[in-house]
Specification:
alpha+beta, N-terminal domain of MutM-like DNA repair proteins, DNA-binding, 21% strand, 272 residues
Length: 272
DNA sequence: TTGACTGTTGTACT
DNA sequence: AAGTACAACAGTCA
């Protein structure tokens, strides 16, 4: 479920599994998953090695031993990585496979085909072209305040906008707003200094916690709103407890804001 | 069988 | 210009 923390986990995974192994071939099941012509991808990357990684928001960049050859990966809603040895072990949905000379493979799993892989020659140029904002873990309070306050839209859609700040997705925006005691429908330009400060603190808290738990939501601390989603449709009785605010026990509200399913505590996240 | 879905992009309307 | 709403993408899963 690739929001910033999941992409960070995938970055670490690629970094520890797939560097310094010459690429012998790349198998692509569906060219629609590529943002670069398949023949170009092949001739450019065969005999190259991955030498490092970088992440900005939900974008993963894989550096190669040729400085102007960089692989860009976007995981869409369901993308994942799996490093495996024998082709018999090829994971389900490994629709793009980087085959290394040592017999190992890095599979890019694309269950829904919303994922994308392609070549770029410069990260900054790419980020500028796509207007990607500062990473959620790197943005300062001042930058966040400036970017949020010049928007009149609801705070939730604003935080979801990758041009404002990069890396937050639907689940994390809800969590961040919950931790910051801010209603998802408050107008972005009406946030007080104290709210901006709470918001910025919540960014770090939620993102760092998520990464620490390797983005496995069910392991998150009990004070996290995320659990109302996790067991929303569970058949078990004790699930009811998860439908209430972990702090004040009010029933969590579910609605659609900015076209996305939204959970919030109507008692603590008051509309100002 | 139906509906919902973590993301992004484009279009159309206001 | 900026905000809003919505569909489309293509598949899985409950």
């Amino acid at each position: 479920m690739p929001e910033l923390p999941e992409v960070e986990i995938r970055r670490q995974y690629l970094e520890t599994s797939s560097l310094y192994q010459p690429i012998s071939h790349i198998d692509v099941e569906d060219n629609k998953l590529l943002t670069t012509n398949y023949a170009t991808l092949l001739t450019t990357l065969v005999d190259r090695q991955f030498i490092g990684t970088q992440r900005v928001g939900k974008n993963l960049f894989v550096l190669t031993d040729q400085p102007d050859v960089i692989v860009h990966m976007h995981f869409g809603m369901t993308g994942d990585l799996e490093y495996y040895h024998n082709s018999i072990n090829r994971p389900r949905f490994a629709r793009i496979v980087f085959e290394f000379e040592n017999g190992f493979n890095l599979g890019f799993l694309c269950p829904r085909k919303f994922e994308r892989v392609g070549l770029i020659d410069d990260i900054d140029t790419f980020l500028q072209r796509k207007k990607i904002g500062k990473d959620g873990l790197a943005i300062t309070l001042e930058e966040l305040t400036e970017r949020v306050r010049r928007k009149k839209a609801l705070i939730k859609p604003v935080l979801l906008d990758q041009n404002v700040v990069a890396g937050l997705g639907n689940w994390i925006v809800d969590e961040v707003l919950f931790q910051a005691y801010i209603h998802p429908e408050q107008r972005a330009d009406t946030l007080a200094d104290e709210q901006m400060s709470q918001l910025h603190d919540a960014f770090r808290f939620v993102l760092e916690t998520a990464i620490r738990y390797e983005a496995t939501y069910r392991d998150f601390p009990i004070g996290f709103l995320i659990h109302v989603r996790e067991w929303d449709d569970s058949p078990y009785d004790d699930v009811e407890a998860h439908k209430f605010c972990p702090r004040c026990k009010t029933r969590i509200e579910r609605s659609v804001i900015g076209g996305r399913t939204t959970f919030y505590c109507p008692e603590e996240q008051v509309l100002l």
